[in-house]
């Protein structure tokens, strides 16, 4: 019963090898047993021939346990010769269902590499199990109610291979992960949405960064979506402009050496050392300090409580930035100008930062869990598993 056996299967014996720390349980069926056809379900098919197979099972204390059985192929009158399904394992798996449930529970608690060491199985075998359960659960995901989506991209490996995530904002779950960050990914998302019962025309809000590919993709494939530009991405662009000002000024101001990270922070989050450094700098005359103030003032816009107030604020900021005589800041201000409506849309779409930040931290966790993953496919599966709010159907 503990093995999940159903008639005609019975345990016929067990071999215990203390040296190899291995327990082999033998399972068989009586001669003349009849089986259901795996194809059409017809009962009472006789065995045609058999093949010996074994499955890794839950450890018996510190001993690895295996089930061994000769699995029959039946001769069905309608379907011909077919290999039967056994009640304790999925077709094609070398693990029992209970062992797979253990693997999936472990994966939720630790990196795949750690699970690999604990169970003593090669990680490619564990990944196969993960892919099966994730794909099965993914197939049942329902996107019929999705109306607000955020898109985020992350480097799969340092420097290359991007994956893009589509987040259902209202349910705070990742509903689509795809390789790349080009125009085609929005089309792929729209197709996937339809496959899961959703409707691209029903997407009313989409939060993206300012990449032209995303903007174009949304216009083409999510026709009714209003675009909100992601706050963090805009601030990042302005930060890069501040850094350009610093790099140029450093050539004539040695005291700016080693201050790069100071200007990337907000005053409240400076370390004690950075605060001392900042106080020692001639901030009244430094261009870098002026650029930094322009960035901080831009961020201040997000404290406004209405789109109208934010629009007035942004207008004043734009005037200041474009008259700063700091070319990188002027360029950044022009970028803001070109994306004006989508930046201000933030105040109406009220897409909570928390959701995107929360998903982002889950993705970082997924990367950590799949450290040493051999493929982007593995990382995608782990993102779904951790951030997809999937309902896994696991044997209990
Ligand atoms: Zn049949």
What's the layout of helices and strands?
Blueprint: E1 10-17, E2 22-28, E3 34-35, E4 45-60, E5 63-76, E6 80-83, H1 97-109, H2 112-119, H3 123-139, E7 148-157, E8 160-168, E9 173-179, H4 184-195, E10 205-208, H5 212-221, E11 226-229, H6 231-250, H7 260-264, H8 272-280, H9 287-300, H10 307-322, H11 327-338, H12 340-344, H13 346-349, H14 353-369, H15 376-387
Parallel strand pairs: 2-5, 7-10, 10-11
Antiparallel strand pairs: 1-2, 3-4, 4-5, 5-6, 7-8, 8-9
Helix pairs in contact: 1-3, 3-15, 4-5, 6-9, 6-11, 9-10, 14-15
Bound molecules: zinc ion (ZN).
The site of zinc ion has 7 residues, from loops.
What features would you highlight for this structure?
15 helices, 5-stranded mixed sheet, binds zinc ion, 21% strand, 6-stranded mixed sheet, 44% helix, alpha/beta, 11 strands, 396 residues
What's the short version?
With 396 residues, the chain is an alpha/beta fold. It is built from 15 helices and eleven strands.
Structure description:
This protein has 396 residues and is of the alpha/beta class. The protein is built from 15 helices and 11 strands. It has helices at 97-109, 112-119, 123-139, 184-195, 212-221, 231-250, 260-264, 272-280, 287-300, 307-322, 327-338, 340-344, 346-349, 353-369, 376-387; strands at 10-17, 22-28, 34-35, 45-60, 63-76, 80-83, 148-157, 160-168, 173-179, 205-208, 226-229. Strands 1, 2, 3, 4, 5 and 6 form a 6-stranded mixed beta sheet that branches. A 5-stranded mixed beta sheet has the order 9-8-7-10-11, with helices on both faces. Helix 3 (123-139) crosses helix 15, helix 6 (231-250) runs antiparallel to helix 9 and helix 9 (287-300) packs antiparallel against helix 10 (307-322). It is elongated. The chain starts with 9 loop residues before the first strand and ends in a 9-residue tail after the last helix. The model has no long low-confidence stretch (mean pLDDT 91). Bound molecules: zinc ion. The site of zinc ion (ZN) has 7 residues, from loops.
